[in-house]
């Protein structure tokens, strides 16, 4: 790459309003707030090789959100008539949050569906957690779904990403969930140099062998995520890209979701556009959903999100990724 090319790459995503070529940057308005994500904290029982949120046993940058803090957003949804149907719980590992069962109970008891993104390993398999999950399944049935991270259908590749022994422990958790009638989904990765068809075929063999209630050929049942790397060379998304790509802004995650996080040392949680931008303070939209809807400076235009981050381009627009179906 030439010096000029390096300079251009460094200048990308620097201006919220214009690309490095001077074109108007694409924006995504909130069409409908369907999913509210609650980040339960960035601590995790394992440290993956390429975790988009850098979760680990020592990463406390996002602290455990409390039941009362999350309930305030559920109250706001009810009071102001936000059209939310699903509350998603992500981390870190959600089952490390000591109030996770209460968080789930509050969402489910108010009529929402609840989606938990988990590695289904030791935190979930503790006796008190299993007992609590069984009670929730008994009370709310398929409105509670657990989407388990299984990076590849082969033990070698999964353990390469998540550490030795993680594949077997995750299968143990999946087997327990399936045996007890939970609604399940899987999340894999697309970094292994195989076609999507081959990947889904490989997962299908494993799913059939284990007897899990998951369809490998349903993108909502088995989600295959593109890789994310902020250092990767990706194009900026302009307003003209929608027509060129044949995509609509309403297809992008931030058209239908927001995420709540609580930062270490903060007095209160804040609202972010999506699950991918957890640590960048430039993407904080306010402390309430109402404030987020009015955000109008920097990365926001009267509540719309300016696509001024590499993840916006590679994961969402070009990769077709979304954390909720």
Q: What's a quick, concise take on this entry?
A:
With 325 residues, the chain is α/β, with parallel strands linked by helices.
- The chain-level structural class is alpha/beta
**Residues in β-strands, percent:** 5-15%
- Helical run tally: 11
The mean pLDDT is 91
Features of the shown structure:
alpha/beta; 15% strand; disordered N terminus; 11 helices; globular; 325 residues; 3-stranded antiparallel β-sheet; disordered C terminus
Explain the overall architecture.
The protein is α/β, with parallel strands linked by helices and 325 residues long. The chain is 33% helix and 15% strand. The protein contains 11 helices and 11 strands. The strands form 2 sheets. The chain has an 8-stranded mixed sheet. The chain has a 3-stranded antiparallel sheet with strand order 1-11-10, with no helix packed on it. α2 runs parallel beside α3 and α3 runs parallel beside α5. The radius of gyration is 20 Å and the shape is globular. The two termini are 38 Å apart. The relative contact order is 0.17. The N terminus and C terminus are likely disordered.
Question: Secondary-structure blueprint of this entry?
Answer:
Blueprint: H1 3-11, E1 27-28, E2 35-39, H2 67-80, E3 86-90, H3 100-109, E4 113-118, H4 122-125, H5 127-140, E5 144-149, H6 155-162, H7 166-179, E6 183-189, H8 196-210, E7 222-225, H9 241-245, E8 257-261, E9 270-272, H10 289-294, E10 300-301, E11 304-306, H11 310-318
Helix pairs in contact: 2-3, 3-5
């Amino acid at each position: 790459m030439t010096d000029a090319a390096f300079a251009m790459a460094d200048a990308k995503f620097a201006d919220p309003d214009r690309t490095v070529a001077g074109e108007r940057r694409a924006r995504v308005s909130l069409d409908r707030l369907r999913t509210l994500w609650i980040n339960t904290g960035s601590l995790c029982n394992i440290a993956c090789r390429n975790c988009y949120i850098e979760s680990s046993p020592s990463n406390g940058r996002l602290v455990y959100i409390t039941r009362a803090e999350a309930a305030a957003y559920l109250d706001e949804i009810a009071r102001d008539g936000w059209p939310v149907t699903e509350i998603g719980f992500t981390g870190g590992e959600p089952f490390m949050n000591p109030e996770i069962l209460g968080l789930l109970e509050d969402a489910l008891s108010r009529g929402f569906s609840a989606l938990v993104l988990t590695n289904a390993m030791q935190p979930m398999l503790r006796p008190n957690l299993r007992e609590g999950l069984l009670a929730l399944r008994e009370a709310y049935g398929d409105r509670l779904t657990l989407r388990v991270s299984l990076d590849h259908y082969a033990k070698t590749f999964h353990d390469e990403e998540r550490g030795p022994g993680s594949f077997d422990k995750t299968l143990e958790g999946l087997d327990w969930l399936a045996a007890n009638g939970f609604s399940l989904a899987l999340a894999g990765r697309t970094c292994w140099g195989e076609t999507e068809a081959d990947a889904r075929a490989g997962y299908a063999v494993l799913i059939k062998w284990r007897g899990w209630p998951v369809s490998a050929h349903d993108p909502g049942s088995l989600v295959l995520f593109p890789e994310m790397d902020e250092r990767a060379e990706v194009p900026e998304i302009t307003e003209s890209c929608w027509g060129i790509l044949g995509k609509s802004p309403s297809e992008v995650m931030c058209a239908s979701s927001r995420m709540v996080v609580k930062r270490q040392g903060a007095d209160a949680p804040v609202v972010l556009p999506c699950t991918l931008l957890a640590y960048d303070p430039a993407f904080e939209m306010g402390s309430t959903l109402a404030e987020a809807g009015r955000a109008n400076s920097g990365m926001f235009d009267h509540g719309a999100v300016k696509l001024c981050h590499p993840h916006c381009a590679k994961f969402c627009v070009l990769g077709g990724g979304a954390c909720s179906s």
